[in-house]
Amino acid sequence: MARLRILIIASEAPPRVSGVAKAIGEIADGLRARGHEVVVFSSADAPGLRWDRIRFSAAMTRVGAVLDNDGPFDIINIHGPSPSISDLALLRFTKWNRGAKVVYTHHFSLHFGTWLADLAGRIYELFFRRVAKGCEEIVTTTKDYALPFERAGMDVSVIPWGFDQDRFSPGERHYSGEDALRILAVGQFRRYKGMAVAVRAVVGQPELELTLVGQGPVLSSVLQQIPPSSTNVRHTGRVSDGDLGQVMREHDVILLPSRTRAEAFGIVLLEGMASGCVP
Question: 77, 120, 124, 240: most buried, per Cβ within 10 A?
Answer without folding.
Answer: 77
